[in-house]
Amino acid sequence: MAVTIGAGARVGALQALLPLDPLENRILACHALGITRIGLITQSERLLSAPEAAALADLVERRMRGEPIAYIVGRREFYGLDFAVSEAVLIPRPDTELLVDLALERLPVQGRMLDMGTGSGAIAVAVAHTRPDAGITALDVSAAALEVARANACAHRAAVRFVHSDWFAGVEGESFDLIVSNPPYIADGDVHLAQGDLRFEPVGALTDHADGLSALRTIVAGAPRHLPPRGWLLMEHGYDQADQVRALLAGAGYTEVESWRDLAGIERVSGGRRAA
């Protein structure tokens, strides 16, 4: 669907002219015009130039085709911080803030944490920004994702060591007080992969191309070699996987196995401690 926004339109009239919901209209207008939300108000009588009108129309058309707002503007807020995102990484979601909260509660003073499959670096950077005393390592198999993560760490002056690695391969012989991960956990063929924002996100960061548990199995099996006795492993998973993940942890000998609910009441993170 073509969107026509004429040159000479008033900034203050854009909410009525644009076809999206008010929040998305405002975000895209601010991005296209290079102004803040306050600017939309203080510059309400300003008239759009032809290049501004064309740029805004292009952004609105992209959104109407389903492209996520975060990819269009290249930003997403997470844990109170502004993160750069691109199509090389998953869009950080509020559900994952639970994993950050749980990690911060369990990370000892000057402790070491490993974030596996870091993507945009949201988890690692949020923890490092909150706990500058800690030693944070983050790994990912995607070099493109690591470029985004490094930029985010730099932007927030967060001390994070990044490692290009296929799961534990790049940290052999290292030990961490805490390991966290938001791995690919959507089963191959799941209908959600063809819906909403997921259509645009990197498929390898969403699905394991199997039953949705293979990455979780790899992490559960490999983590004890990198944890001290009673060190924690915490993993985000799908809305219906908590029972299975707890079974994996218990079967591998972890103790204090538990699942935690997100703000929607869904068991979103499960974890346990390496046996003493």
UniProtKB/TrEMBL annotation:
Domain Release factor glutamine methyltransferase N-terminal: 19-74
Protein family according to the UniProt entry: Belongs to the protein N5-glutamine methyltransferase family. PrmC subfamily.
EC number(s) per entry: 2.1.1.297
Positions with a binding annotation for substrate: 182-185
GO biological process: methylation
Superkingdom of the source species: Bacteria
InterPro entries: DNA_methylase_N6_adenine_CS, HemK-like, N5-glutamine_MTase, PrmC_N, RF_methyltr_PrmC, SAM-dependent_MTases_sf, Small_mtfrase_dom
Function in brief: Methylates the class 1 translation termination release factors RF1/PrfA and RF2/PrfB on the glutamine residue of the universally conserved GGQ motif.
Catalytic activities: L-glutaminyl-[peptide chain release factor] + S-adenosyl-L-methionine = N(5)-methyl-L-glutaminyl-[peptide chain release factor] + S-adenosyl-L-homocysteine + H(+)
The name this protein goes by in its record: Release factor glutamine methyltransferase
Gene from which the chain derives: prmC
One Pfam family from the record: MTS
The keyword RNA-binding belongs to this UniProt entry's keyword annotation: no
Residues binding S-adenosyl-L-methionine: 117-121, 140, 167, 182
Keywords of the record: Methyltransferase, S-adenosyl-L-methionine, Transferase
GO molecular function list: peptide chain release factor N(5)-glutamine methyltransferase activity
CDD domains: AdoMet_MTases
Domain Methyltransferase small stretches: 98-192
